[in-house]
Amino acid sequence: MATANKNPQPAKAAASKSAAATAGQPGPGMRQMLQVIAKRDGFRRAGREWHGTSHVPLDELTRAQYDQLTTEPLLVTQLLEVPEEQAAELTGEDAQAEN
């Protein structure tokens, strides 16, 4: 027989602590990037057209654009913190893919 959870507050607190990384200040030598995977090529959101997998430096997005991208069901997003050199490579690969 199951019993009701009489103290739901600790569960909510634990869930919020285990949530994915949030936008903020990256560590030294690191840069925050938003990885965006389009479920449908050519889909437009936040003033951009999305194809396949793209990486966008977080500092290039406004808070409104970030919210639009991360709440859009046709896009899969993940916040990454990568070394500066790798961030340049990721954005360079995306630019080459568009050409």
Q: What is the tally of beta strands?
A: 5
Low-confidence stretches: 10-20
Which percent range describes the beta-strand content? 25-35%
What string, H for helix and E for strand, traces the elements in order?
HEEEEHEH
Reported for the largest beta sheet, the result is: 3 strands, antiparallel
**How does the overall form come out from the CA principal axes?**
globular
Helix-strand category: alpha+beta
Number of helices: 3
Return the average pLDDT rounded to an integer: 80
Number of structural units classed as domains: 1
**How does CATH name the architecture?**
3-Layer(aba) Sandwich
- Adjacency order of strands in the biggest sheet: 4-1-5
Distance between the first and last residues' Cα: 61 Å
CA-based gyration radius: 17 Å
Overview of the structural elements:
The model is unreliable at about 10-20 (pLDDT under 50). With about 100 residues, this protein is of the alpha+beta class. About 35% of the residues lie in helices and about 30% in strands. The protein has a three-stranded antiparallel beta sheet with strand order 4-1-5. It has a two-stranded antiparallel sheet with strand order 2-3. The chain is built from three helices and five strands, in the order αββββαβα. The chain has one domain (about 30-99): Ribosomal Protein L9, domain 1 (3-Layer(aba) Sandwich), CATH 3.40.5. The radius of gyration is 17 Å and the shape is globular.
